[in-house]
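**User:**
If convenient, please work through this fold.
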Amino acid sequence: MEKVMAAKCSVSFSSYGFDGLNKSSSISSNNDFASRKKNLNLRLLFLPSRRLLPASCKIQQRNLSSHYKRQLGKKPPFERIRTRAKLRPNSDNESEPENSVSNDGDMEHTANHEKTFEDNVDTRVDVEHIDESNSGVLSASAVDANRDVDHAEIALTKALAINGEQLSGVQPEDLICMIKTAERNILLLNQARVHALEDLQKILNEKETLESEINSLERRLAEADAQIKVASEEKVHAEQLEDQLEKLRTELINRGGSGKSELELYENRNKISNEEALLARDAHVHSLRKEVDSLRTENLALKDDIQALKSLLSNLKNTDERIVTLENEGSFLDASMKELESKLSVSQQDSSNISTLKVECKDLWEKVENLQRLLDKATKQADQAILALQQNQDLRKKVDKLEESLEAANLFKVSSEKIQQYNELMQQKIKLLEDRLQKSDQEIHSYVQLYQESIKEFQDTLNSLKEESKKGISDETVDDMPWEFWSRLLLTIDGWALEKKLSNNDAVLLREMVWKRDRHICDAYVACKEKTEDEVISSFLRLTSSQPSPGLHIIHIAAEMAPVAKVGGLGDVVTGLGKALQKRGHLVEIVLPKYDCMQYDRIRDLRVLDATVNSYFDGKLFQNKVWIGTVEGLPVYFIEPHHPNKFFWRGQYYGEQDDFKRFSYFSRAALELLLQAGKKPDIIHCHDWQTSFVAPLYWDLYAPKGLNSARICFTCHNFEYQGTAPASELTSCGLDVHQLNRPDRMQDNSSHDRVNPIKGAIVFSNIVTTVSPTYAQEVRTAEGGRGLHSTLNFYSKKFSGILNGIDTDAWNPTTDMFLKVQYSANDLKGKAENKDSMRRLLGLSSADDRTPLVGCITRLVPQKGMHLIRHAIYQTLEMGGQFVLLGSSPIPHIQREFEGIANQFQNHEHIRLILRYDECLSRYIYAASDMFIIPSIFEPCGLTQMIAMTYGSVPIVRKTGGLNDSVFDVDDDTIPHRYRNGFTFTAADEQGLNGAMERAFNLYKSDNETWQQLVRKIMNIDFSWESSATQYEELYAKSVARARAVANRT
């Protein structure tokens, strides 16, 4: 019967979808109601699972001992746990009534209800007299039921298979009904689970009471055992007394004689007393035996009760396990419900995408055919190239043989030429000594004459100065005032113009007088120091007159400026180039964001203007405070936005998620400042992607407003950082996305939905530069241009590379106060003393002064050649040198790697790694190092090689970018001897680095005099900004001249 019912459940399960099935069958009798109290009543609920789950369980009292029954009778019997999961089939008629099958119905009655089996039916199995045979039958039926449930699950899996054509036959309405029905079934299962948990709590409480009853019964059993033991001991003692009495009798009989009558009398008395004692003892023993028998019977009853309780406890444990499985099945139903919903959504998406995929497939086939044709052509070309390569290899082998023969021949020539050169050098030195002796005599005589003439000139100049002071010459310029004075005066005039205290025309005239360093305005400013501001302005207005401009008006808009806001080389360039152009007579101004993390102590005369600049962003106008101050003698404007996002109050310069918005906002605010201040610059110079927005903003928005006098110069310091962003973000600063997101304007070359600020600056600027000539050639290739090579090649006429310089006032070993001993090219003893001092400072061995010291100061990033720096550490140690590294990495895994190397050499006497940046220690390393290693993979310019040579450290560099433009190999015969200043290698591998280091070590150890000459030569090279500033000046002048010529023609 159960197999038939299980088969019907399987059919109903597969036809109605995801339904819960209830089956009930009862095995009970109406006549044996009393016996049912001793048995276990179970009801099994069959669910779609591989295990049987309990629906209810009732444990009734067993026939225990009388004492135990009295205690147990005071407690209520266990309540039946009724958990009915009324699961509805997946049918439209949801109001169909639920039918149930009676427990005492027969097979015929059950057969009558099979037609309505899709309704929810409770299944009950009353198990009578549970024994081993019944348990076996129950387990067999459970196995059969599980087998049938497995068939139902297989049917369900087939019915729910979702792939391609099968899913198309199922209507969405049917799926939705199935899902709703499954949700209702899950709700019913959850309610059943709640009832089961409540019943489980009651069972656990009854379990605790049963355990306490068992403990009390065990204690009573122990007491009964003790009483039996005492009774047995008293019986043994009575038997011993009887034996002693018998012995006494025998002794009295043996004595005989006159005492016989007395003995008999005594014996009779003893008999009477003994008989009484025996009677009393026998009665006591008899009562003890009865009590022992009763205890034994009760003990047996207790044991039976304990066994019954243990069986009940085992049933309780089984109930716990079944409840756990019920919870697992509930979670399984939840997961299956979610899978159905996800598969339904995926199927809908797949059906909508099939048509588009077909169209794309056709296009792809066409493209594949085109590619196949191209591949055939390419294979033909490749075959031709292979033939050419083979021919080239044969030629290469012949050339190698010829070179070997030439090298063998040159060896003999070199030896003879060296001897001749040595003789010639000795003769030259003798002649030089003779010439110096003659010159020294002449110089002494000339010094005497010069001294006499200088006395006369001093008297003449003194008289002329007196006369000039009397005449009061007022037309000459003032050269004895520092640049800070003129910058402060210029900022004061600009502040008056922004605060509307001066007209724009008067401000222009006063700026020109400051620009010329006119004595009139200098004297007026000095004379008005203690006067009020209105009096100073009125005195300045009396000085206004049209004056010709002495040079160009140049404004740098940048994100960095050394030393107040420096991250990399950009800050050094802005300051160094600005100072060099200022010395050449140009008016130079800087516009910076006002970061919260700037070094404010390096800004002189910092103050806020009593005026605000309004700029547009995100459809609104925002106010900006303007601060002015001087940095390294240059006038600087600091813009502080009043924006709710606090763009420049982040504790760092770069690296924020909204950098695109931050710097596009700043670029527009900077141009708004120039417009509202009435400035008419000749050149606006912007740097890197952070201020590249200036170029399109200037021509699209501000040139039509009247800020149209300038030419735009853009300098990219590293093409690896381009600041690309989604095109929609360009609208925030007011630019037209539809006009600019085009291939010929700002659209990124590798992604059509993104804009590239660097590309926009290249397109919209009049002058485009980078920081070295070699790097300018490298970025015009696909490998070096980072996607912009085609744009740079298209605009190659306005693109050039100018090698950066260094600030020789800041980097000068003769005046560097961070060094222990200052030194120069003419006196290198101080360099040796600094080397010894730094060795002691870092704990390195100083036993041998001639041990070469190799220095390296760098950011630990892949661009700098991490694998070559790592190799150089071990190679230096192997070649008998010392190595010092200073720097850190923003990349965590590289930082951890070098921390491991630092720990490895923590106490080593020749290797030291300091994984941080320390400016004082960096100057020490420059001064102490004999060699300086820079194995960069690519290097736009590089300043460390220039600083190292200024401090007398010979560079070992890879030939790339600015390194190739500033370091020339000492063994390269194609380079004039006067330009050779270091050791270079080409391939970015360990072999190339080893060759350069070996040549440097051999020269250092074998020829000290030649090494010292090399050190003096590199220290005398001019790496200042003078040459670079001249090239920028020429570019500026040509661009401005072309613009003025066009304006004159129109």
Notes: The chain has a mean pLDDT of 77. The chain is about 55% helix and 10% strand.
